[in-house]
Design a protein that fits this description.
There is one protein chain. This protein is an all-alpha fold. It is built from 17 helices and no strands. It has helices at residues 2-6, 15-37, 43-57, 66-81, 86-90, 95-121, 125-132, 137-147, 151-175, 194-213, 219-233, 243-258, 266-297, 302-309, 314-323, 328-353, 357-361. It is globular.
């Protein structure tokens, strides 16, 4: 009976958890609004993320409960799907070449970052490979535990990569003139009718649950995105979510990323910061080579390529695609492909090149 009662999916949160959630949302909203009012590109997501991250590093126990996280991901998926058009869907045929190059870029980036961590910072091979692998953090964490790797170090390197990319990428694209220096974060021209909104939410939840049942990666976000894309692409639904709802989703994603620092001690962060920055620089340098190659050999927009090849988390990069007016289908297809590459290849790489299981057991 004890096992049954502790595994109930809808347990009423404690007062402490409610206060922690409220604090996270307040700090995230404040940070997002400051960046938005300052006219910074991607202001809602980057401002929210930075504000929550700073508070978390300062010792605040910030977090978002799973149910709220899932709701934010569904809203993000619906918003991404609402910008899909027949024109975007017609460009899918150009993806195989760029996805193939992305696979090669992921392979080179992983080995380049891991080599740097081994040679410069003296990391063991297993920890270095897992830290250098872009994305699929939950799978990386499981492998790290199984193989006895440096879990705190891996967490710092992986989290810093996402934080830096999410904060810096909009600025870099704006400075380069690829996107406007003050991109409006909320740009829906039409809001779907109440009936269409009900259809959108119902179809998105249904598809998300189906994908969750088959263990599809990022099922809440991609399920909603697929359902919304089909409804909009086929012309069955016109318009999207109200602007303020999209804003809530962007602030929520930023707060979710920033709250990762709540589980890190300052001593742990400081001890691995140089390794995180160095391996990030290597990963970006490798990715830049492939971004340049794709830009010179295809007709894909440069901003689309940069966000699609950025070695960051899927949810963060797709949120940036939404707020920076970047093709979400292209970005989503490539980050999903990267997730598949990492999920399939990383266990094999660790088995071939990491420490042997005997070493781990000892």
């Amino acid at each position: 009976m004890k096992h049954i009662t502790t595994s109930l999916p809808f347990e009423w949160p404690s007062r402490a958890k409610l206060l922690s959630t409220a604090e996270t949302l307040v700090i995230g909203t404040a940070g997002g609004l400051v960046f938005l009012l300052a006219g910074l590109p991607g202001g809602l997501i980057s401002g929210s993320m930075i504000a929550v991250a700073i508070a978390a590093i300062a010792g605040r126990q910030l977090a978002l409960p799973p149910l709220l996280t899932q709701a934010v991901l569904v809203l993000l998926g619906i918003s991404l799907g609402s910008v899909v058009s027949r024109h975007l869907l017609q460009q899918v045929g150009a993806y195989p070449l760029t996805i193939g190059l992305l696979a090669l870029a992921t392979f080179c980036s992983t080995f380049g970052s891991s080599y740097y961590l081994q040679r410069i910072h003296g990391w063991d091979r297993t920890s270095a490979f897992l830290a250098g692998s872009p994305g699929a953090l939950s799978q990386i964490t499981i492998l790290a535990v199984e193989r006895g790797a440096d879990l705190p170090g891996i967490a710092v390197v992986q989290t810093m990569r996402v934080i830096i990319l999410t904060a810096a990428l909009p600025m870099v694209l704006a400075i380069a003139g690829v996107v406007p220096s003050a991109v409006p974060s909320l740009t829906t021209t039409t809001i779907a009718s109440p009936l269409d909104l009900v259809e959108l939410v119902a179809a998105s939840l249904a598809m998300a649950l189906v994908l969750r049942l088959i263990r599809f990666p990022a099922s809440w976000m991609f399920g909603a995105m697929i359902a919304s894309s089909v409804l909009h692409g086929a012309g069955w639904v016109e318009g999207g979510l109200p602007d303020w709802v999209r804003g809530v989703a962007l602030v929520g994603i930023g707060a979710l990323i920033g709250s990762r620092f709540a589980r890190m001690r300052i001593k742990t962060l400081a001890g691995h910061i140089n390794a995180a920055l160095g391996s990030f620089a290597v990963a970006i340098a490798v990715s830049a080579i492939f971004v340049g190659t794709v830009a010179l050999t295809t007709q894909v927009k440069f901003s689309d390529i940069v966000v699609a090849f950025a070695p960051g988390a899927m949810d963060a990069m797709l949120a940036l695609a939404l707020t920076l007016h970047i093709d979400p289908i292209f970005v989503g297809a490539h980050h999903l492909s990267r997730f598949v590459f990492v999920t399939i290849a990383t266990p094999g790489i660790v088995h071939l090149f990491g420490r042997t299981q005997d070493d781990v057991d000892d």
